[in-house]
Inverse folding.
């Protein structure tokens, strides 16, 4: 009788452990793209980003001759891709886009601030914002001083 209780207790502990592991796996499956709200969330972020840039006198001149619709499409693709979404980026390289623009450190920082404002307006959690900004920051060398 006592041995059966020990085995039942061990079985219950094992089942509990498996349950905890399953919950942990579900949390790990959530990726940055999902945390940003998927396709619709990224579209909102990009639209807010464009509106923020449009009212930012520090950087608006860089976008004066931009095709806003193309910028929107490629920015959505770019954020989708770098956040582990199911997208393919079909735009030009960051180097090709930014060569000759003479983007300086302060200009880059202003754009980062604009992205932060867009993320805040979109209701993105701070931790998720930080993860996205960290991934975007890897492109810094392909944008400034070209």
């Amino acid at each position: 009788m006592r041995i059966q209780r020990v085995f039942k207790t061990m079985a219950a502990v094992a089942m509990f452990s498996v349950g905890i592991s399953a919950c942990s796996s579900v949390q790990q499956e959530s990726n940055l793209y999902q945390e940003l709200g998927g396709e619709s969330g990224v579209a909102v972020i990009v639209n807010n980003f464009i509106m923020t840039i449009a009212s930012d006198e520090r950087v608006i001149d860089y976008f004066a001759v931009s095709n806003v619709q193309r910028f929107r499409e490629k920015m959505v693709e770019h954020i989708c891709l770098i956040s582990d979404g199911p997208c393919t980026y079909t735009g030009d390289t960051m180097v090709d886009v930014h060569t000759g623009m003479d983007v300086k450190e302060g200009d880059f920082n202003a754009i980062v601030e604009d992205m932060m404002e867009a993320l805040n307006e979109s209701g993105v959690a701070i931790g998720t914002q930080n993860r996205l900004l960290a991934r975007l920051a890897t492109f810094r060398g392909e944008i400034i001083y070209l």
Remarks:
- The helical segments are 2-29, 32-35, 38-54, 68-82, 94-98, 105-121, 126-137.
- DSSP finds seven helices and no strands in the chain.
- The first helix runs from residue 2 to 29.
